[in-house]
Amino acid sequence: MTKPLLTPRERVSRCMRGLKPDKLPVTVINSNTFMCQYYGATVEDYLQKPALCADLNLRFIQEFEVDCNIVSTGYIFYGAGPELGVEWKFAGENFPGNVSGPIRNKSDLLKMKVPEHPAGYFATYLESISLICDRIGDTHHLKASFLGPFSLVCFLHGLEETLLSVVSDTAFFLDCMAFTTELSAYLGRHLLKTGLRYPILNEIFLAPGMMSPDTYYTHIYPAVLAVQRRIGAELASNSFTFMGLPNDVESRKRDKALYTAFFGVGESIDAVKAASQYRVPGYPYPAAISGRALTAWDAGRIVGFLDEMLAELIENQGIWPSISYASVQADNRETALAIAKKIRAVNRFRDAYEL
After folding, report:
1. 93-102 residue pLDDT tens
2. Which residues, including other chains, have CB under 8 Å from residue 197's CB and lie 6 or more apart?
3. Residue 134 — left, alpha, or beta (φ > 0 → left; ψ -120 to 50 → alpha)?
4. Confidence check: pLDDT of 118 > 80
5. What span, in angstroms and rounded, lies between the C-alpha atoms of 30 and 19?
6. In sequence order, what are the residues at sequence separation of 6 or more whose Cβ sits closer than 8 angstroms to the Cβ of residue 119?
7. Which of the 8 DSSP states describes residue 140?
8. 241 contacts: CB under 8 Å, gap ≥ 6
9. Phi and psi for 87 in degrees, rounded to 5?
């Protein structure tokens, strides 16, 4: 009698617990431009029509057999859209980037209020996620982002201005963080109301080398913990912060190795080995294919490199990983079609791979 297949969520769960799955799960972190190009949608429609956004995400997950997916990606969605006074700029068919924020000084900060109800792009975001969760929330490991307090300050005050304020006007920076702590908790609570099981407290502006670990743990991490306490630390992993610990050079090396492994930077088996004893919260260990490799390499080279990674992780390290795409992105339909063929080749390899 043939053993029934696991659901995608069960498959991911087994890998995260160090247990053998029926087959390796596939994880995708970001795919918004690919979905628009591949399915023929405009960025404006993706960002403004929740039913369309949900449909594109569902089609992508199902067509490309994705087990763990961050859905409805787009920075403008995550809680600092124009509805909060942040100015965004659209450029052609690209996703928009933020231009400026409403907080320039203490007087501006005092005018800011946590919204009573979701509005604008954030409301669209929540509706699209609700639709996705209604369809496949029980079967798949679905994740979505809301902005952490530091990232909210960066959007509301400006990235360069925020980094300067941390050292030159710390009192003002901490006042900003007090407001954005409440705002971040508000965003997280509303994200949970969609039925999403696995929200991400996303500090998108933090990366290795952005600031010293001491600065992070003194001025930023307490606010992150405060947000997690308000909505449940187990419900909102702070997944993408790779800062290391204060006065601990080895921890910085560890987190940089984990960052490299998670995003597939450099396509290096040595990087996979270096980070194999560490984990990113909320994900199986990644056998990562970078966005650069997915675009520039042919399918044979991608599958060959993946085969090497799996040999190291499964046979040498005893790790059941996820095949992970940090960035499935395409700037035109031709590129999207080429990427689709490569993902299908990886899926065929995954289905035939003997565990």
Report:
1. 889 999 999 9
2. 137, 141, 142
3. alpha
4. yes
5. 26
6. 83
7. S
8. 203, 206, 216, 224
9. -90, 130
